[in-house]
Amino acid sequence: MANLETIYLGLKLKNPIVAASSEMTGSVEDIQKLEKAGAGAVVLKSLFEEEIQMEMEQMKQQMTGKPYVYPETMDYMDEPVEEDQVRKYLRLIKEAKSAVNIPIIASINCVSSQKWTYLASEIEKAGADAIELNMFILPTDFSRSSVDNEKIYHDVVNQVSSEIDIPVAAKVSYYFSDLGPALRRLSETRISGLTLFNRFFAPDIDIDDMKVTNGHVLSSPSDIHLSLRWVAIMANRVECDIAATTGVHSGRDVIKQLLAGADVVQVASVLYRNGATYIAEMLQEVESWMDKHKYATVEDFRGRLAQEKSTNPAAWERAQFMRHFSHFVRHK
């Protein structure tokens, strides 16, 4: 029988399917369902940097009644009357660790390396096995260069990882002017893993009401191709593990990402559509494929089609596909 065990961020996982950060990983009950369904690990619902900073400011106001807070009053800021989002998050980590046996990876959605980074040590104390920093700096600030934008990523990673001993992963977007080299440089910091890529708010336009609305919230199977390409290109070229995400909707998609070189595969949208129990079906599909091709372990085939090992490496870089249109019948 196929052995799906793998190592990610130095953690031993029973299989490479990880429940990505979402509403489905925001309660102990849901996390237990994911473990029962077979998830190898869980990335908790993200705590947003804005939430942390807002609550810090509110507590300062409550303590002093003024915008300025004296340093000595900070000693009392761990005594708020009501449980804030940060405390709820730390409690979720503690309770999840007591309730399940799979690794619990905390998640912080951040855009800077400001004072919120103190929270990393609290997350470690709460028992998290690792932290995933979900970073998305949209390059729309015309006063910042690409070098300035990349520096933000490095500053966040270095600041957080300097305060803790547990592994740190960076979940990033593809908005880099030199994506491949940028990912390699990021991998050479203190991170233990890269998650390719984060999925963010996609605007759309309602042409009748004349307003900006939400685009597609959930991914579709066709969305896999961007991360698949870059997982294959970066496999064996970065100094850390790789988690593939976005567009993974079946066991076959998991296999594709592993063949491309991913260490684990994160899923979310498919669980919204089919429920947590769908993980078991995906695992069964992976096991059946492994048995059919006589692979005993995931390591036996991981990265076999990565660009560095591929017999046709140019296929991963080909950007033009006009000649492929000749296969389609045109309407007249």
Could you provide a short overview of the structure?
This protein has 332 residues and is of the alpha/beta class. It has helices at 28-37, 49-64, 85-99, 119-126, 146-161, 179-187, 224-234, 251-260, 269-274, 278-292, and strands spanning 6-8, 11-13, 17-19, 41-43, 47-48, 104-110, 130-135, 168-172, 193-196, 203-206, 211-214, 241-245, 264-267.
Strand percent estimate: 15-25%
Number of strands: 13
Main beta sheet: strand number and arrangement? 8 strands, parallel, barrel
Order of helices and strands: EEEHEEHHEHEHEHEEEHEHEHH
CATH architecture type: Alpha-Beta Barrel
Distance between the termini: 53 Å
Instruction: Supply the CATH class.
Output: Alpha Beta
Strand order of the largest sheet: 3-4-6-7-8-9-12-13
Radius of gyration: 21 Å
Poorly predicted segments: 68-82
**Structural class of the secondary structure composition?**
alpha/beta
As a percent range, the share of helical residues equals: 25-40%
Number of helices: 10
Q: Give the number of domains.
A: 1
CATH topology: TIM Barrel
CATH superfamily: Aldolase class I
What do the pLDDT scores average to? Answer: 87
Would you spell out the secondary-structure blueprint of this structure?
Elements lengths: L5 E3 L2 E3 L3 E3 L8 H10 L3 E3 L3 E2 H16 L20 H15 L4 E7 L8 H8 L3 E6 L10 H16 L6 E5 L6 H9 L5 E4 L6 E4 L4 E4 L9 H11 L6 E5 L5 H10 L3 E4 L1 H6 L3 H15 L40
Parallel strand pairs: 3-4, 3-13, 4-6, 5-6, 6-7, 7-8, 8-9, 9-12, 12-13
Antiparallel strand pairs: 1-2, 10-11
Helix pairs in contact: 3-4, 7-8, 8-10
Organism: Salinivirga cyanobacteriivorans
Keywords: Flavoprotein, FMN, Oxidoreductase, Pyrimidine biosynthesis
GO cellular component, one term: cytoplasm
